[in-house]
Write a structure and sequence with these properties.
Bound molecules: fe (ii) ion
CATH architecture: 4-Layer Sandwich
Oligomer: single chain
Number of domains: 1
Distance between the termini: 40 Å
Strand order of the largest sheet: 3-2-1-9-10
């Protein structure tokens, strides 16, 4: 059996179509989807239509699916979430809401478990917290390449505390996403697979639709990481022509910045927004639209100088 493993599509239907075309060319037998389907790029309803039609699929929910019923509001912080969810039909939301948090099944005698976050498998270890936002802490002298990022993962995996978590697990395949970093590793028959992000890769590598092929044959497990490059500036031009750009410009510009650098920016921006709000004595959360936009204006002017490692 060969599966396409996909996660973190985040409304990016063009990237999803590319990944699925590549998977079809590799003659996959089925599809495993690990959550976060709708928020950030403006094509949530197209993404859900594609997912609902996928044959031989097993699909779980991610943390974004917790915002399905986000109500009206006048803050700036959640305007993108509000806009993306407003494009979904009631049927789409019901379908998304019915997805399980976790799944376990067996394929050719191999146990396969799926959850959006690796925390479900390895607890609140550093692994769960390993996001590209922490990289400046790892690399005070310069930028992180994908190779540096993977070497840090390897160091993390060698830690005794992490080995204890892993070896407490039964053998099998463990599929998760969430941090948008494409990785996989085999720990004595415990195979961790993070296919990265189809719609918003953040692993300091090449921009493109990331996903992984998982093959199980005669009890043997193999993984092949795939990344399908495409024209990101063309994607940005398409997004600018949608209502999302008008309705949620700040969030959408931050997404553009993440696409252009393949690095996380949201957490740094939220941190900056906290600092800015404190400086003007604004304790409203979620952030007011005026605070959100003023903080972004400052961020857009200075982020390159404050976080040079994010702009290589
Ligand atoms: Fe995500």
């Amino acid at each position: 059996m060969k599966f396409a493993v996909l996660s973190d599509i985040h409304g990016n239907a063009p990237a999803l179509r590319l990944a699925l075309a590549d998977a079809a060319a590799h003659c996959v037998d089925g599809y495993l989807l690990a959550g976060d389907y709708c928020i950030s790029a403006p094509w949530a309803s197209e993404v859900v239509a594609i997912l609902r039609d996928l044959p031989n699929s097993r699909i779980i929910r991610g943390n974004d699916e917790a915002h399905l019923d986000i109500g009206p509001g006048d803050d700036g912080q959640f305007e993108a979430s509000r806009w993306c969810m407003s494009t979904l039909s009631r049927e789409d939301k019901t379908w998304l809401d019915g997805l399980p948090e976790e799944l376990t099944f067996t394929c050719e005698g191999v146990s396969i478990r799926m959850a959006h976050s690796s925390q479900v498998f390895v607890g609140k270890s550093l692994h769960e917290k390993f996001r590209t936002s922490v990289l400046p802490g790892f690399y005070p002298d310069g930028p992180a390449s994908r190779e540096e990022l993977l070497s840090d993962f390897r160091r993390l995996w060698e830690k005794e505390s992490f080995r204890e978590y892993i070896h407490a697990l039964p053998q099998g395949v463990y599929i998760f996403g969430h941090n948008h970093i494409q990785t996989w590793a085999d720990f004595d028959g415990r195979v961790l697979v993070n296919p990265g992000s189809v719609g918003m890769p953040l692993d300091c590598g090449e921009f493109g639709a990331a996903y992984s092929l998982l093959t199980i044959e005669d009890g043997r497990i193999s993984v092949e990481e795939r990344r399908i490059p495409y024209d990101m500036e063309d994607l940005i031009a398409q997004v600018k022509a949608t209502g999302q750009y008008a309705a949620a410009r700040v969030w959408t510009e931050i997404i553009f910045s993440e696409w252009r650098t393949v690095r996380e920016k949201v957490y740094q921006f939220l941190h900056h927004c906290e600092r800015y709000a404190a400086s003007i004595g604004d304790d409203r959360r979620p952030f007011a639209k005026s605070t959100w936009e003023a903080a972004y204006a400052e961020w857009a002017e200075h982020a390159r100088e404050w976080f040079p490692e994010l702009f290589v």
